[in-house]
Amino acid sequence: MPVTPLSSTAVEVRELVKTYPGGRRKPDVRALDGLSFTIAAGTVYGMLGPNGAGKSTTTKICTTLSRADSGSARVAGFDVTTDAAAIRHRLGYVSQGSGADPRQSPFENLVMAARLHGLNRHDAMTRATALLDQFQLADARDRKVAKLSGGMRRKLDVAVGLVHTPQVLFLDEPTTGLDPQARAEMWSEIRRLATESALTVVLTTHYLEEADELADRLVIIDHGRAVIEGTPAQLKSTLDGDTVSVELLAPDIEAVRTVSAGIPTLRDIVIERDGPNGRLIARTDDLSGVVGRVVTEFDAAAIPFGAVSVSRPSLDDVYLHYAGRSYRSGDHTQEVAA
Fold first, then answer.
1. DSSP labels for 142-155?
2. 69 with 147, same domain?
3. Cα–Cα distance between 160 and 109 in angstroms, integer?
4. With the C-alpha atoms ordered 31, 157, 167, 201, is the resulting torsion angle positive or negative?
5. I need a surface site. Which of 35, 62, 116, 327 has the fewest CB within 10 A?
């Protein structure tokens, strides 16, 4: 096996471009459009973005499961195109779908995975037992995977990804579909992995709170491009003031636009429509007086609205500021940006 080059960089992505055919009479889909970022070794790095942003495509390229049309990527010091075999020895990959055989037990799945990575039977059984203990799956050692809960199956998926002691572990949407308790348990496992070893964890997620909670550093991806990169705290600190949010009920967009523009304590105003209703989002430096002013002005203009709230900047606000729409809005229509 080649010797891994010494480096403080675990993953380096430069100007990745990837396009998929659109199918019959449909335009091609540009999944990645010049994406670049760098991941320091021994950190938890989050790739955050809505579904379809390009996160999974990036993961597949970095794990040698797909090839970019152009650009480059290096993992553990090796090029994903020319040194794919060397990379595969040094990375673990947990996809969105479970890779465990539902007809086998967790122990059998882990032993099989270890054997595929070259361990002899004795070492494979020892490693499987250790991982079952590590992930609190020892009591389910001989139970069929099909009988496990969603959270237990996801823990097993991560254990399988670690069976050969990789340097970099890619987790693609590891908590999708889990209930809140199982998600919290998975968060705990990811934090433990990063704290107790020199493992680099690359986490793709569309959950804002997950990226905020787990990532030492993250990149927000939108339409295949990096919107902004930094620690969660750094990204939120780029926004001045507080966030004002107003639920709009069957809004008259022109009336909302006129009234909100006339409130001097509001700035960076965006109005988004979600079906018949919508939401106004803005920035303010008037934490104490802005709610009363909004309520008074909207009531005077007979604009129907629901809750009015003020909060400190969140990753949703960061996404809104840099991508031009709120993260949760998805494909909802942005009516106003002022």
1. TS-GGGS-HHHHHH
2. yes
3. 8
4. positive
5. 116
